Amino acid sequence: MFKHPVAEAGIQIPKGTVKPEEETRNAVLREMEEETGLRNLKVEQLLAEDLWENDDGSIHHRFFYELPVCNVDDGWDNDPTGGGEEEGLTFHFFWISSIDEVELIRGHGDYLHLIFN
To answer: Who's near 5: CB < 8 A, 6+ residues apart?
Structure first.
């Protein structure tokens, strides 16, 4: 999870956009490195895939992957490297141990029950 520095953006899970011709498994690894700073991650499995309507009416094809990690601090800050709206921001990352521990911004916790079962 990470706390976005813009209060209205709330608490989120790392996410991003799949580039044209990019495979979703590669996109999730790229986005995780850009947003979290974590490297050398491996995709465990695809947990879920859906079509989701944003507040502005746009439809997003979402993919939720499981990526196990080890030997990572309980919390850390990272300056995203993907550019765009995240340029100049610092995200504060942290782990949770239950689905009820935090309230995520709309849509971000849709599949957490698949992790905490």
So the answer is: 89, 90, 91, 92
